[in-house]
Amino acid sequence: MTAPLSDIRVLETGTLLAGPFCGQLLGDFGAEVIKLEDPGRGDPMRQWGREKPHGQSLWWPVVARNKKSVTCDLRTADGQALVRRLVEKADVLLENFRPGTLERWGLSYEELSTINPGLILVRVTGYGQTGPYSPRAGFGSIGEAMGGLRYVTGEADRAPSRSGISIGDSLAATYAAFGTLAALHARERTGRGQVVDAAIYEAVLAMMESLIPEWAVAGYRRERTGPILPNVAPSNVYPTADRSDVLIAANQDTVFRRLADVMDRPDLPADTRYATHGARGENQAELDEIIAAWTRTIPSAKLLSLLHEAGVPAGGIYTAEDIIADPHVTARQAVIEVDHPEFGKLPMQNVAPRLSGTPGGVKWAGPALGAHNEEVYQGLLGLTGDELAGLRTRGII
């Protein structure tokens, strides 16, 4: 089956995470993603990650999967000329440099669109291409803070916390990929490309539910609440007899009654303090104490079995080890193994979401630096071997 984006060619010039994750998403669904990297060094993601067996990053094989790596010094006139030639044959140019960088290199959208009117330029930055903050350096963590996420993440009596992953970068990349698909669809009607301007802080802000009208209309400011959802109960993490944690979400009236039946506490739904959604929210802390006293007497596996059988939403707090071992994950192939020259069969997360007719897939893990120089420069652009050797000698590729 042909992947849905198999007729799309993407030039990826970004580094680190936001731009490259957007490229990963497009490549997951079949786009030909040609990643242009600095000669000799490549994307810093090649070195990122806390654990690096054999000196190799375990993050790079994931974020660069399905991509073709070519080297190109974008700071040189010859490198910029290569980009222009590639743009002639591309659908999308993806970048996450600080605003104005492409323009300084003579690669503005105005110039590139004269070469290829159908080109879509996808720009991922901290603050966007316009506005007073646009020239600032902007990492994902700063976007998370400005977009409102950091303030509401963590425990109430502690400083704002990180979520544990680079969520700001990933959200901006996801919105950038969505914008790319929207621009490609619009091009089918107009024949013209356009600029997709994805700001990290705006991607985070877009996910913040009713945060803005709550303050503007009701004067309510959301605060950090740890694992609970304020006024929604029971919905929390509860202890078990074997010192594991189990998350139970039984806040709807019908579901709460099922939980009470499992607990053998039919008195709880009849109690005016817990009979309704609003009442349970007002008495959240004491209800959580009652439930925790019960869960603490039962091993986690048995507790989850009881809850699942009763139709109460519940689950364990998974580590990577738990994810890999889970039979549901295995049955749906949510984790797959990809061949890697250093690690053999390398497990990583599969493509999401799933398409029934034209699914995406992982063809290869992140490639070696410049692994596709000959394929792209000779096969696509028609450079001769001597021309390629000359570019290599001068450090352009």
From TrEMBL:
It holds the Pfam family CoA_transf_3. One of its GO terms (molecular function) is transferase activity. Signal peptide: none annotated. The keyword Protease does not apply. Keywords: Transferase. This is CoA transferase. It comes from Actinoplanes flavus.
